[in-house]
Amino acid sequence: MSSHEAPLGPKHRLVQQARLLARERREREAAGLAHMEGVRLVEEALAAGVEVAYLLYSPDLAERPRGAELLCAASARGVPLYRATPEALERAADTQTPQGVVGVFRPRPWALDDLGPGLVLVLDNLQDPGNLGTVVRTLEALGGGGAVVAGGVDPYNPKVVRGAMGSLFRLPVVKLGLDAALRGLRARGRRIYVADAGGALSPWEATLTRAAVVIGNEGAGPSPLARQEADGVVSIPMVGPTESLNAGVAAALMVYEALRQQA
Amino acid sequence: MSSHEAPLGPKHRLVQQARLLARERREREAAGLAHMEGVRLVEEALAAGVEVAYLLYSPDLAERPRGAELLCAASARGVPLYRATPEALERAADTQTPQGVVGVFRPRPWALDDLGPGLVLVLDNLQDPGNLGTVVRTLEALGGGGAVVAGGVDPYNPKVVRGAMGSLFRLPVVKLGLDAALRGLRARGRRIYVADAGGALSPWEATLTRAAVVIGNEGAGPSPLARQEADGVVSIPMVGPTESLNAGVAAALMVYEALRQQA
């Protein structure tokens, strides 16, 4: 932390690795590592007990009280800390304002048995990282049991990590194929619904406690397998001429309805 | 439409005006005009009977069937059509892919009496155009009565227009100060709730039929006036350690709950 060595430059191996982890899904999956940045997110990761591989920070971070506290907390957990030049930090960052700190962490390898008792959302080929981030944040806030990501955007895409605002460090998010996910959830006693237009049930008619709901791709909707395997199709009644809700909104309404039924 | 004149160049007055309307709120408010782009949005505006001041289009738009149909429909309504060079269209556009057409329209001057019977959301100094666009889309889809925009982001910001996906051409969206909005809504027989943490009521305990709900600013929450004037504070019960929901999600949950109570 109070290293006497020169700060890392933009060509240092760890700076390059952080940059790649922010940009390349393949790199994240091969290394089992992911990228985060900003004081708030790194604080949340440490508080959640996430394994942080290392932090890169700007020399002035330690001069701000909150920054100094962060470095202290990371150091106490044995996280390797590296000062980096402003150019190196910019290179390692995903946004233009990484707020003085970029981190590399090891996502937990969640499994179906880690899911909590609340509603589980199965995200069937979701494409928009902003949607996925909001879904994870909303699931945690409203007491959902977790998410299964079946294809589509990588849950450790930096935009998802930012959008989830720390929830991704705490909520079980399982990566699994759709078929295995549906069979595994049913074997664990969950009723499977799929959210889609033209279904027989409104959300308040479905029993969403002890259930999983499949949310389909933003354009194509749920895949045929999901429709075929589901115990029922749940539709949010559309009053206006709009064709569909934003996938993140549709997901949030399901989690809300499950919470209401529980209460 | 099959004009023999040369297409408009990037310095033409209408191209410059469209560009300014996309970028400057002051220009929109001074002229009472707004900006839209893309085949789908312009189709929705025409279908909704919105007054379109003019369209700028690329020469190749007329060669695509859907583009030709669009120009034909606009022409039948007496909308002035101007071919523009690709450079001019790019200059007039807000995004990098305006899909061959940029339009200028005159938003309807909605008033409180135009609001429908469904739930009304009062957006108290909302800042994020993406949030506002989603809120307008969700309100229309779930049968809300409309929105009152009390300060914050301009509802005719091009990002809101895009995010609302056509709903902004149909749903009543009233621009009004918070004080006048709350008094006017109450005078029209609506109960006023404010969505905030620590309230006495969960959404399913509040009577959201014939009501208005104030949704606060993304960072600061609802303003003191809203808290003071409201008949009750509605809180979405938070289970996880997350501090708050995304404002667009919170708004969507209220409209959903009103729809459920109605049904």
UniProtKB/TrEMBL annotation, chains A, B:
Query: Keywords for this entry?
Result: Methyltransferase, Transferase
Q: Which organism is it from?
A: Symbiobacterium terraclitae
Q: Which Pfam families does the entry mention? A: MRM3-like_sub_bind, SpoU_methylase
Q: Which domain of life is it from?
A: Bacteria
**What family does the Swiss-Prot or TrEMBL record give for this protein?**
Belongs to the class IV-like SAM-binding methyltransferase superfamily. RNA methyltransferase TrmH family.
- Carries keyword Phosphoprotein? no
Write down the InterPro entries for this protein, in alphabetical order. Alpha/beta_knot_MTases (IPR029028), MRM3-like_sub_bind (IPR053888), Ribosomal_eL30-like_sf (IPR029064), rRNA_Methyltransferase (IPR051259), SpoU_MeTrfase (IPR001537), SpoU_subst-bd (IPR013123), tRNA_m1G_MTases_N (IPR029026)
Q: Which residues form the RNA 2-O ribose methyltransferase substrate binding domain?
A: 35-111
Question: A GO biological process this protein is involved in?
Answer: methylation
Q: What Gene Ontology terms describe what this protein does at the molecular function level?
A: methyltransferase activity
Which named protein is this?
TrmH family RNA methyltransferase
**Mind telling me which CDD domains this protein's record contains?**
SpoU-like_rRNA-MTase
